[in-house]
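Entry 14. Ran structure prediction on the chain below.
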Amino acid sequence: MIGFVGLVAGGSGACAAESVGVSARITPDDTILEDTPRPVRFDLLLGVSPGAGRSRVSPAEEIAVALPDGLVAVPGEALAECSEPALLDNPTYSDPATILASCADSVVGTGTASIFLGGFASAPLTDLNAILFYSGKDGSGQPTIRIYVYSALGHFGFSIVGVWKEHELLLSLPTLPSGSAMQALRLFFPGDGINRPDLGFDYSATQSRDPGFVRASCPTGEWITGAGFEMGSAEAGGGPDEKTVVKAPDDRSSCIEYLGP
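Output, structure tokens:
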């Protein structure tokens, strides 16, 4: 569905059954500079793979994405802040059309996702669409995003909180319905519109309102992206302290070819 196969070839913790992976593709709109960020297309893929022979998958609760040097979020002055209560506070998030209509001027990207229903490795649900909303700045002045994810087959949605810190994108995942666990999450900045009229997702309404939201420069000649996944317990009744951090292998790509005046 979203290029997940082959992503998680490594990255397992001593106490974790899962492997995790990260992949990043940065495509400039034009040439870039060594020291001044310019608008780019940023395609980020995060994945969790069950351990061999394991029937259950631990839920990812927090993902710290180590961003490449020179990659930053720069919200445009005209970009609205999404403060829709249904997106920020509602635990069901089951009305995608209303949420999109309320925050249409805050869209900064789109995405896709898949989860393991009930945490079972044999029950992937792969139809999830995501819309990325700018939700203002936190108390430290860092840009924040809300990632609204919805499954038409499952008739449920959920919201992921993202804080774009210096050199890091911190994603906080909620407790998913029925004890489910994330399999893959793919985020596109500025993304492409989603044409799903059955969900109330119109192509033009889901296009980014700020194509320059993500920008990049090439200070070292290489873009390196990493990720650490904080995993909860896969077993029913697992305690809140039963967590482990699993680090994904770094993803590397050259940016020298994009340098220009």
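The two ends are 38 Å apart (CA to CA). Will compare against last week's run tomorrow.
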